[in-house]
Amino acid sequence: MTEKRRIGIMGGTFDPIHIGHLVTAEAVRIEYGLEKVLFIPAGNPPHKQDSNVTPAMHRYIMTVMATYSNPHFCVLPIELERLGPSYTIDTVKELICLYGGQTDLYFITGADAIHDLPTWEKIDELIGLCHFVGATRPGCIRKLDDVIKRFGSLGRKRIHRLATPELEISSTDIRERVRKGRSIKYIVPESVESYIQKEGLYI
User: Fold this and answer.
1) Is the pTM above the cut of 0.85?
2) Which domains are delineated in the chain?
């Protein structure tokens, strides 16, 4: 029997993408033997309808800049091209059509986001279609275990945790640093820092 391909999905607003995203994606890629990790910027994030999200094209360009040097990373604009809210269930179904049923998909996210899994669109169907890997840090494991229990045997098979380097970085903090004129060097890739400055983002 041919072994299934394993492909990672790194979804997010990426406003902006930062080294925490990259470190997490690479750690999961190695741990789970993923062929590649697809970075998929959210087009119209349903959980951020009331916030001011940077235009999609800027977020897409920054994500391409941040990932181009890793041959195992690539960026797909499928959520940017889709009308309406960007639901993960729609993206996963599209990827299954693209890569075929003999591929295991691993959705990579922070443990904090996995805590909200029960509220995701069509979550019971979604967990049947792909694995979830939560990047954990001390203090998050118990909450993650509670989420796994919520989904029973399917949760134990489909929701995984992986301790990753502790990087207390958030896109919100980066935007605030830019607004205050503080340095973001080494928090984002150099190319992304230059793009933010060139385009006058987050000021």
Assistant:
1) yes
2) 5-169 (3.40.50.620)
